[in-house]
Design goal:
The chain is an alpha+beta fold and about 220 residues long. It folds into 2 domains: about 60 residues, Winged helix-like DNA-binding domain superfamily/Winged helix DNA-binding domain (Arc Repressor Mutant, subunit A); about 140 residues, Ribbon (Umud Fragment, subunit A), CATH 2.10.109.10. The protein has 4 helices and 13 strands. A 9-stranded mixed β-sheet has the order 4-3-5-8-13-9-10-11-12. β9 and β10 form a beta hairpin. α2 packs across α3. The longest helix has 15 residues. It is elongated. The termini are far apart.
Length: about 220
Amino acid sequence: MREKALSKEQVLSAIRRWILHEGLPPTVAELRDVLKVGSTRTVLRYLRWLEDEGEIERWSGARGMRLVKTSSQDAQTSSVPLVGEAPAGPLMVAEQNIEGWVRLPKEYLKPASANFFLLRVRGDSMNKALVKEQTIETGDLLLVRQQSTARSGDVVVALIDGEATIKRLVQGEGYFLLKPESTSPKHKPIILDRDFQLQGVISRVLKRGSELLSYLED
């Protein structure tokens, strides 16, 4: 039985919904499942149609797609800057140091008055830590709420000896502790006085970090 043809608006709506909820474009296979069509060839035909109509841009790669025209759903997302990785050197959130931008749902970015940035994870010093039931592993992206204070127990980004690090903040009597939560015993707690610089608090772990990086906006 011949498949029922979909309209341009139906295909565009499916792509927009996927980007809104996942933070990145769908692959051809994912879009095939969402559209409930039987073949990859059909999806590619729809994508070529949208590209010819100027609705999307495409390039090589599994998620090489970008919506060209805005919609009411686009108002539900915001662009967040990627500013580097940790552990690494100082994080510089100034515009000239931003590596790229990733659109994320606004529901991730609360309170609306706060500033957020993304940080790429390198290493295993916090691979046992949980933020909203997600572990922190190499290749993940961390959504960081930029602030200079935190509560004891928060997972934070701190600047120690000029290097950004991700640790659990623990407050004792007259001191602070930056505590690793790792499967490796090589990582040790760092005891600090009050003269350290807090960059922000981790609010969410994006486990598809490497895929999101392939969708950086210009």
